[in-house]
Amino acid sequence: MSESSSMVRATGLSKGFGAGLTRVEVIQELDLEVATGEMVAVVGPSGVGKSTLLHLIGLLDRPELGRIVLDGVQTDDLEPDARAELRNCDIGFVFQHHHLLEELDALDNVALPVRIAGEKGRVARDRAAGLLDAVGLSDRASHFPDQLSGGEQQRVSVARALAMRPKLLLADEPTGNLDSANAERLFQLVTELHLKAGLTSIIVTHNEEMARRCDRIFRLARRADLSENVRKI
Ligand SMILES: Nc1ncnc2c1ncn2[C@@H]1O[C@H](COP(=O)(O)OP(=O)(O)OP(=O)(O)O)[C@@H](O)[C@H]1O
Ligand SMILES: [Mg+2]
Q1: What is the pTM of this model?
Q2: What's 126's domain CATH number?
Q3: 26 CB under 6 A from ligand 1?
Q4: How many domains does the chain have?
Q5: How far is it, in rounded angstroms, from Cα 12 to Cα 62?
């Protein structure tokens, strides 16, 4: 695969936490390449390093060893400001727990990243309204997070993740806290938006059935030498 067709090219990633006796090696010499437009599921047992991997790819944390190239940009050598800009503009993140701001209503939560990026309030609110419509929540725009169901909160998080029109969507167990009907609805929504917005998506999930519906499953095992990259047949 040529570099230009890869949205993510991570090579030789290693990351652990702590030092001395409390040191935990989490990711060791991991390679992951995700083609532009691909939807990849990341699966593996609890504690294996799925969130850690997503944080590295999302530039929320740095690997101790290895390289991460995002859409042809070598991220490891970038200055902090340039990394932050890449993270804010090109990457949308959906967390397992929605991380919405409780004091803002749904519309303002979705508009916030656009405002922070310096757009006028009107532009940010119009874009947020369009995204709330896309996730089926136009009628909940002025509701605060605690007035929304878990499924609705996650749909607002998806809308917020897409507010900056990112190239790459990273979702960390987005359906983990939802009942099966809401999980299915959210997964379908993510799949639909992935195609419609021409995204590249990496989705951590414990749900094998959903994982199989992605283009490819990337399995993380406890030891790096057991990690395998399984192409969907
Ligand atoms: N900031 C940190 N400091 C110390 N240890 C950490 C830190 N973040 C993660 N870890 C450890 O790294 C390992 C991997 O954590 P991670 O959250 O990536 O797992 P996970 O695969 O996402 O698990 P889950 O499925 O439960 O979400 C765990 O043993 C965890 O305790
Ligand atoms: Mg996790």
Answers
A1: 0.92
A2: 3.40.50.300
A3: yes
A4: 1
A5: 13
